[in-house]
Amino acid sequence: MRLNLTILFGIFLLKTSAQSTYAPLNDEYSHLIERYEIKSGSLLNLHSNIKPVRRKDLIKLSTDLEKDTKIKLSKVDSFNLSYLQNDSWEWLDDEKLTQSNSTRKFLKYFFKKKSDFYNVQNKDIDFHINPIFQLAFGNDNLVESQPTTNTRGIEIRGTINKKLGFYSMFSENQIVYPEYVRQYGRFYSANPYEGFTKITNSDSTKFATDFFSARGYITFQALKSIQIQFGHDKNFIGSGIRSLILSDFSAPYLHLKVTTQIGRFQYVNIFAQMLNKQIPLAVDGTEQMPPKYFSLHHLSLNISKNFNVGLFETVVFGKRPIGFDINYLNPIIFLRFVEGNLGSVDNSIVGADFKYNFKRHFSLYGQLVLDEFNLEHFKRNKWWATKYSTQIGGRYIDMLGIKNLDFQVEYNVVRPYTYSHFSSFSNYVNYNLPLAHPLGANFRETLLVLRYQPIRKLFLNLTSMSAKHGEDFDNLNWGGNILRNYMIARPREYGNEIGQGRLAKIHHLSFGASYMLKHNLFIDFKFQNRNIQYSDEVDATKSKIFSFGIRLNSAQRQLLL
Fold this sequence. Notes:
The protein has helices spanning 5-11, 27-40, 55-67, 75-87, 94-97, 179-188, 335-341, 375-378, and strands at residues 50-51, 110-113, 116-121, 125-140, 148-160, 164-176, 198-199, 209-223, 226-233, 236-237, 253-262, 265-275, 291-302, 307-318, 347-358, 362-372, 387-396, 405-414, 429-430, 433-434, 443-452, 458-471, 502-518, 521-534, 541-552. By secondary structure, the chain is mostly beta strands. A hairpin with a 7-residue loop joins strand 4 (125-140) and strand 5 (148-160).
């Protein structure tokens, strides 16, 4: 009898109380959350290093900021806070609720609220429905078939009897990616952020993708301090542009998330079922893609109102006759102990993260991930299994006294073979895409981001990425491709360095401008200049990509690869 996450969900059904669904998980939203947490001068409002955050908590952060007389908010800040509040207006008190009303209703029933196409709210149900739309056209100098995006969909969220929250999103997409993204998709046999996709013309220059995207979950408050989420969705752990612990780069996955928050402590358990795309399916299509599983514990502590530290552990495993191994269900045991007792056949990873906000203008953050570490071998000459990754970053908001000019810098380092495993059921991968950093392993990366909002509805963004990534060549495994078995074709035991193998130097510069025509309706312009130079080639491959588009209730995809 297979024990899956649907059965596990039933174990946690308890008496519920008022709850909240989650705010959108994207770069634009995350930046606003981090910015206003810094301005608040306190980390006690929400543990923002675990994303997405609850809409209820985000409303509390924004309304508390407006009430704080010590904070000087610009007109742009006031606009942004109103935007966040209007986007989750169901959690506003009666005094502020009227601000979310629309002045242009349609047929009395539509657009009653600025953020909703249609909504119903009474004592039994709170219901919101919105269309999703994105249309974009571009130009890539490397290919004949130019980048395009055509997305149509719908988003639904709400609560039933103020007890059970629900969220559902589905969209139909046709996308022609820029050439560098197509190359990434060919290499990994998967497209960033997505699950199953159809390549409609894979042998030509078009390489168009056609896919159906969907997410859906329910939430409920099991106890005063415990919230539970169950469904298909994504998570992001960290305060940076990248996460070396858990990012949203792979496909959505079925999971049960239990969040316990007591005072300054937050404890998160994630039990997930993902997919192993590396196992070949039957030619006649009679086999299903085999599952792999994931269990994570993350403990977050606000040591002071400005300093937060987190500890995490996770294990990835598969090939169990009962499905999810019940040994990993214990939410308060050390997973490495359990994994060792089972014979050390799974992939156990541990680490820590931190964030320090100060002077209402600055933030320092970082992560440390230990995949495998042996002190005796560490003292010797760069053992192959000294596998770890580190991140350090910082933010400076209202830089040099210029209102709404924000700067961010981030440095990421990942040793060769980190996140990989001898079994495809245990590597740190879901649906062939890394669960952490898009580059996998064996690289150094520097990111610089400058964001400026000169007027209320105009958003400017300048991003620079520079990376040195060691790729495999001559059929040898130099530790950059985390899908590969680290026991096969590894060239040496010691002397392994970051960037070994075929060194790729990547420089990616992008400029974006977005203007909000009305709530969540944007027009976008973007220019990207990407160069990649290989150590064994004289000339660099140079990409120049322009794009222009319009989107409604949809976020731009971050494609820094």
